[in-house]
Amino acid sequence: MLLVSSISAGASGAAAAQEREDRTLLPWDQLHAIINEASGDRALHTVLELTPYPRIRSRSEYLGHFRENEVVATLAQDYGFSDVKIESFPSARPSWQPWRGELWLTAPETRKLYDIHDVVVSLAPNSDSGEVTAEVIDVGGGARPEDYAGKDIAGKVVLGTAPPATLQRLAVFERGAVGVISANVLRIENPDVILEGSIATAPAGKKAGFAWVISATAGRELTDLINRGQTLRIKSIVDAETFPGEIETVHATIPGDGTSDQAIIYSAHLHEGYIKQGANDNTSGSASILEMGRTYIRLINEGKLPRPKRTIHFLWVPEIIGTNAWLDAHPDVEKTLIADLNFDMEGLGLSRGGARWVLYRTPDSFPTYLNDVGQSVTEWLSDVNQERVRFRDNGYRFTLPVLSPNGSRDPFYVATEKHYGSSDHSLYLSRNVPALIFATWPDPWYHSSQDTPDKLDATQLRRVAVVGAGVMSLLASADDAAALKIVAESLARGVERLGASQRKGLGYLADVTEGPALVEAFREASNAVRHQQDVEKAVIASAGVLFANPEAASGQLADLSSLIERRSAVLQQEVAAFYQLRARQLGVEAVAYVPSSADNEAANTTVQRVPGGRFFGRKGRNDVLFASLPARDRPAIVAAYERLPQHMAAELSVLISQGKTVLEIRDFLAGEFDPISSADLLEYLRATEKIGGVKLIISK
């Protein structure tokens, strides 16, 4: 710990240890002030206050405030946040809470298998109350109708490896089983982990049954007994209660100085349903933004950071539904927001989890300077918290160690990846607010019985707080000089991204082994560069919002856009020259691309989203929607959905609301990700039209 103290005690002493290339957008003295104040141990202590262990809630929490919300509100008040308030909104979905839940094996022996007071997530939410004893039938996977062929499961309990909701639909609702046992597993290397899952409430005239989720190890044990000819019987005991649906949020602010009517927001989901209570997912994110705010408040009070021009909002919510409810109730705040930073799964020990801390960029359909701000500060802290041999004159150590007294000595491994949408930041994007998400990934204990505080690392939490507080100070106090500095960062990083798009395109050309495919590769290479050019122009334009006079700034920044076009044109010339070389090498003529019949059809077909329209989501995994389709249509629709790679689905959902043609959408997806044919995209959209998600309008 002496090493940490001596290096980070002050800006003057620490600066000598810095390398000149280690720079980011904040001044050194402000960065060092943040490092000296931010505490990973405090954040970890907050996690322990919020989720010391997954527990059975008390009835009083459903009648008053949830325990976690009271903890956050109390700490926020203690730390000097303003306008701290717990708010409650009604929900159409009732809250289900079990008081007793036990799963017993009664034959061939008597043994308690699970108790919710030991493992809360072992009983799936929405299970019916009651005591049921029945025979267990093994259906293998249990996700396909053929898994049930020749098996009489009416009045029995089904054991399978499919998720509990899938087993419930096929076994309980369609074939009369009384309950299911799911040995579903997220990662085969963790066979003793129990994966969190739920089942649906019962449709009219049916019962929901019950569902237990057990480990893969326990599932194999039960299967082995059946395979040895044993008759298995279990007893399920469930005593649960439902309460009126409630969405409870906590909100606080750090007020701006009155010179700007803009605001930023820091978000984290404190609840993911009220049964699941995950330490990394996501009390770690909730504790992190609290620590960022505490750090910032203290440093502005001490004069070590400038006071914010823009108000900073902090919002702790039930995931997704809480964000929507709060923003709907506060449109006055929503219209002031220029950025959201969402923290979801922050504290996992990186070495222990085999993880990195990942910044997920906004999609290309939402280009913004915010990506570069987040990436700049994140990469800076990563660089100075890894041992770099070229700087070994400073000693075999990190350049500027950011460690916690009770934390690891892990290097700070980070990554920046393309957009991922399954968290609250996606709601801000849908409301036209730029939003980033930070997360540790992979997480071997994600959504499981073992997402507990012992997996977290105070050092990781401290580094997260440093990055978050640094970005907070930069965005909240940015004046015209800081805004132009951000423009410079985006411009330079945009050059790198343009180069990467060209590298991707040249790879298409270099990988072709047969002449006929070369012209298609040339088309995709040119499209990749053109797509990135348009993105980078929009990124520069987006930074105008940070200037005191955004309109005037927009006109000035337009000059940079023309320079981006010129740079892109040179890259396109290089792509064309390489195309000529590759064509000669393959002994073919370098001809212009001729659109296919599918391209022409795509160019003449506009996509229109149907309000409230239905979608499969990830490759047909919406079980309820799938079940509603006529059996004869299912194979063709699922086959059409398989034509779209999963990683394109979220972006496609945005693009179909923009009045684009199918060809424009194809070009956009191919430029952002990788090539997809017009024919495949048309098939996907026709299937979506068939289930009521979109309408395809063909031009005359």
UniProtKB/TrEMBL annotation:
Species annotation: Brevundimonas nasdae
Subunit structure: Homodimer. The monomeric form is inactive while the homodimer is active.
Lineage: Bacteria, Pseudomonadati, Pseudomonadota, Alphaproteobacteria, Caulobacterales
InterPro entries according to UniProt: CPQ (IPR039866), Peptidase_M28 (IPR007484)
Listed name of the protein: Carboxypeptidase Q
Superkingdom of the organism of origin: Bacteria
Location of the Peptidase M28 domain: 250-466
Keyword terms of this UniProt record: Carboxypeptidase, Endoplasmic reticulum, Glycoprotein, Golgi apparatus, Hydrolase, Lysosome, Metal-binding, Metalloprotease, Protease, Secreted, Signal, Zinc, Zymogen
Subcellular location: Endoplasmic reticulum; Golgi apparatus; Lysosome; Secreted
Main location: endoplasmic reticulum
